[in-house]
Amino acid sequence: MKWNEQLTAKLKELCIEGKTNAEIADVMRCKLTDVYAKRSQLGITIAKCKGIEPNLEFEKALETSKPKGMRKSVRDKFKALFNEVLMAMASDWTSVEDSRVYANLSEELIELEAKYNTQFI
Predict the structure, then answer these.
(1) Residue 17 belongs to what domain range?
(2) Signed CA dihedral, 12, 13, 16, 20: sign only
(3) Distance CA 1, CA 40 (A)
(4) Residue 70: inside a domain, yes or no?
(5) So what's the pLDDT on residue 22?
(6) What's the CA gap between 57 and 112, in Å, rounded?
(7) Is 48 inside any structural domain?
(8) pTM for the full model?
(9) Structural domain includes residue 74
(10) Does 105 share its domain with 79?
């Protein structure tokens, strides 16, 4: 049998679906020995095909282990940083220009905290 790219792609697809060589030969209307030979040539083994299949239990475990909302430690760090900026802004030796910088920084901290929190929802 002459193998082209389309037939090879179909063979790979059927192998990944878990079809046996006999079933593949029936679907592709070719000899069983042709299927054996091509799979051997391509190195497509049953173990490799099983490795390609998605592990649904693993994917479910990943979905359930995603953190919901911002972690307390990160939230506390944002709060501490925000408080430090406010204390620096309220200090007696802070100039008016520095106070403006601190005010802008505090607004950016609030936005950053909101962005960080939405990543984990």
Answers:
(1) 5-53
(2) negative
(3) 15
(4) yes
(5) 92
(6) 34
(7) yes
(8) 0.42
(9) yes
(10) yes
What is the model's pLDDT at position 12?
Answer: 86
Stated as kind and residue range, the H or E segment containing 28 is helix 21-28
* pLDDT averaged over every residue in the chain: 82
> How many structural domains are present in the chain?
2
Give the pLDDT of residue 33.
93
What whole-number distance in Å separates Cα of residue 1 and Cα of residue 47? 25
Mean pLDDT of 15-29: 88
Query: Could you tell me if residue 58 is inside a domain?
Result: no
Domain identity same for 73 and 114:
yes
d(CA 74, CA 82): 12
Give me the residue label for tokens 């649904």.
56
The C-alpha atoms of residue 49 and residue 46 are separated, in whole angstroms, by 5
Per-residue pLDDT, averaged over 96-101, amounts to 88
